[in-house]
Design a protein that fits this description.
This protein is an alpha+beta fold and about 150 residues long. The protein has helices at about 65-75, 75-80, 115-120, 130-135; strands spanning about 15-20, 30-35, 45-50, 60-65, 85-90, 100. β3 (about 45-50) and β4 form a beta hairpin. α1 packs across α3 (about 115-120).
């Protein structure tokens, strides 16, 4: 990828992924990062996905800003709701459709800018309406368990 693509990556989050698809003769290892969409209706956002079994269209996608992504991690919603994040490698070309993976909070580099953004979220405040709307649009209930 060109250097101009680098700012669209959230390199503070890294996931090691081994591709074992039929488009390569041997397994390949990649370090993947969340990335911002660079054009179109969802420019500047990260794609999140949630699959639900037993539903006619089981894949539900939403798009969140960096601040909303930090909010999801701070509140533990990424793991609790089973949200996956679309990822790509920084430099290598991926041989297939870019994967979406469940990315636990432990994949955020400690003392990184994004880790500080997550720590700065006021989890005592109500979930912001725009983020609630994204989650509800994906068929997810963001309210904490009682």
């Amino acid at each position: 990828m060109a250097d101009s693509d680098t700012p669209s990556l959230l390199a503070d989050i890294a996931v090691v992924h081994e591709y074992k698809g039929r488009k390569t003769p041997a397994p390949q290892s990649f370090v993947l990062h969340p990335f911002c969409i660079r054009q179109g209706e969802h420019e500047g956002t990260f794609e999140i996905l949630h699959s639900r079994r037993g539903v006619e269209d089981p894949k539900h996608a939403g798009h969140v800003t960096r601040a909303q992504l930090a909010e999801l991690y701070a509140r533990g919603l990424m793991e609790r709701l089973g949200i996956r994040l679309r990822l790509r490698p920084a430099e290598d070309l991926y041989p297939d459709t870019l994967p979406a993976k469940k990315v636990p909070r432990s994949c955020i580099a400690a003392d990184s800018d994004f880790a500080r953004e997550v720590a700065a979220v006021d989890t005592a405040a109500p979930l912001p309406a725009p983020l609630r709307a994204v989650l509800e649009g994906m068929g997810l209930e963001p309210a904490p368990p009682r």
